[in-house]
């Protein structure tokens, strides 16, 4: 695969991740809007700084997840025959991303129960964050929010395991997080104003972008695997 083709695929993945975040706004508001609104009411924050600290920390956690996922993918590839295993990893990861997209649509035979940390621990930390002070509390709350179980975030993390480099894995999750910023920054204002039907259509759009991301990953993996089979005999 030549450099220009590789770069085009990377940029396409970033765009898909960003659009997943944008279209996932209905899902974000439905799942986290009330949580975020309640958190800031309890925090008693005034001004824009605590809100910005919360969401920048949340997006930073996404980027860290992407870096770690890409590093894990690199380790997995390097434990065996590099060429063959990299293609297989892309195929498996793409298939999991497709399943997570179908889960968002509510039609997957497998329901996502995965989380980045124990959910009870996350709830306790989130509930106690407001007692840490306004800015520290906002940053802790944002970090915990970034670790909350979410099929969209999990799909992006799985995709990041196939990133060509650790940095590109972090950038993929950063693009996704940037896409969630408009809706989540306005969560306290918009929560409850988007109807169930509107949130449903936005979620379907986000799920379709996740599925396309998974399909492109599987396609890349099949192509890479076939090329390496010919090269390695």
Give the arrangement of secondary structure elements.
Layout lengths: L2 H21 L1 H19 L5 H30 L3 H24 L13 H10 L5 H14 L3 H10 L5 H20 L1 H4 L5 H37 L1
Structure description:
The structure is a single chain. The protein is mainly alpha-helical and 233 residues long. It is built from 10 helices and no strands. The chain has helices spanning 3-23, 25-43, 49-78, 82-105, 119-128, 134-147, 151-160, 166-185, 187-190, 196-232. Helix 3 packs parallel to helix 6 (134-147). The chain is globular.
Provide the β-strand percentage band.
under 5%
Oligomerization state: single chain
Indicate the structural class: mainly alpha
Biggest pleated sheet = none
The average pLDDT is 79
Shape annotation? globular
Uncertain spans, ≥5 residues at pLDDT below 50?
A: none
Instruction: State the end-to-end CA separation.
Output: 18 Å
Q: What count of helical segments does DSSP give?
A: 10
How many β-strand stretches? 0
Q: What is the gyration radius calculated from CA atoms?
A: 18 Å
Share of helix, binned: over 70%
Element string (H = helix, E = strand): HHHHHHHHHH
Tags for this model:
mainly alpha, 233 residues, 10 helices
Quick overview:
It is built from 10 helices and no strands. It has helices spanning 3-23, 25-43, 49-78, 82-105, 119-128, 134-147, 151-160, 166-185, 187-190, 196-232. Helix 4 (82-105) packs antiparallel against helix 10.
